[in-house]
Amino acid sequence: MTERADGAGFAEPVAADGAPAAATERSGTLPPPLQPRRRPTCAQLVNAGKLLGAVAASYLTRRAFVWGAPAMLMVEPATLCQLHCPHCPTGRGELNRPGGRISLADFRRIWDSLRPPPLLLQLWNQGEPLVNPDTPAIIRHAVTAGTKVTLSTNVEPLVRERLAERIVRSGLHTLILSLDGATAESHSAYRVGGDFTKVERGIRNVVETKRRLGLKHPRLQWQFLLFRHNLSERKLALRHARSWGVDEVVFNTAQLESLKREQGERWLPDDENLRRYVLRGNRWELKRRPRPFCTRIFASAVVQWDGTVVPCCFDKDGRHSLGNAISAGFPEVWRSGRYRAFRRRILSGTRPEMCANCTEGLNRLYAETHRTRV
User: Fold this and answer.
1) What is the separation, in whole angstroms, between the first and last Cα of the chain?
2) Are strands 366-371 and 248-253 parallel, antiparallel or unpaired?
3) Quick check: 143 pLDDT over 70?
4) 3-state class of 27 per DSSP?
């Protein structure tokens, strides 16, 4: 399989005969719009009760109980991205594992093995989800199964009107707009290589498509990371959001990829209320409860593009592989001895290095939240 770039500068897979991948949805008449499921099924509620029981039993006994299937699954559509964000291993070209895209067939193989389907599917990880042409079809498949889907994007791929319409029609519940500036200069200071005009056009494409089709979803949430250089743009961001039709703006404290002193001093705001770290000596530490209990390893999991299952999104390089959901099947991996051993390790307090930057038990993840539309 090769790649072909479109007029917006994004590459899409092309089969040997020159036809784009996922051609059945991408050619001809677009499929009818789907609506996100409004309420969980009885099976999903029962499963949630089992998970809560497992979490409670594990917390009280410090033994790893596994009851039910995960309520939340993060699936990585791709490890590719057109931007070069300095705190992202993909953007820096330092992701220490093979890159690629998950196919619709492989996603369905994983998803259809889950009974009941998770309450929530998060479509992102290390890469831009919309560089994978199968992403809209992946969303539709999960929505049809009764799952609420959230996708995070740098927005620029949505400059293509057809892609924006496929996303709106897919049944996506929430579209997270990952933008960290309200001007072109500020945006490109962190989203290196980004084009602010494409961002604005992409958002307007989604909003205009929703209005034309008479749909309320996807809900648009702008997540704005607070850095030293963009603090003065918060009011401008809110004005943009109202003008563009964004539903909510969330100002997030920024995550550092390196906890060395100089990195924080370069990027973090001076106001301690607008950062999630405190400086201790020459190293930044998270403001959180000491050794918080980790619920993620009992209620959720991350599947990388090649099917590798890892405990959470902070295992960016896949160093703690727990099995492969494509070859072995997700339920088998979820209940495997390797997964149980990792859960016991976390409960014992001997946590791996990736836990140092984890947001579990964090006090200052969100700085401000503003509803801009009712």
Assistant:
1) 45
2) antiparallel
3) yes
4) coil
Average pLDDT value for residue range 138-156: 97
Q: Measure the CA–CA gap between 309 and 75, rounded to whole angstroms.
A: 9
pTM: 0.90
3-state secondary structure (DSSP) of residue 54: helix
Share of the chain above pLDDT 70, in %: 90
Give which of 226, 127, 241 is closest to 180, Cα–Cα: 226
135-144 vs 161-169: helix crossing angle, rounded to 10: 10
For residues 312 and 354, give the distance between their C-alpha atoms in angstroms, rounded to a whole number.
9
Which residue in 245, 149, 235, 167 sits closest to 203, CA to CA? 245
**Residue 238 clears pLDDT 80, i.e. is over it:** yes
Q: Tell me if 320 sits within 8 A of 313, measured CB to CB.
A: no
Q: Which amino acid is at 132?
A: N
Helices (H) and strands (E) in the chain, counts: 12, 13
Omega of the bond leading into 116 within 30 degrees of 0 (cis)? yes
**Residue showing tokens 């209990």:** 293
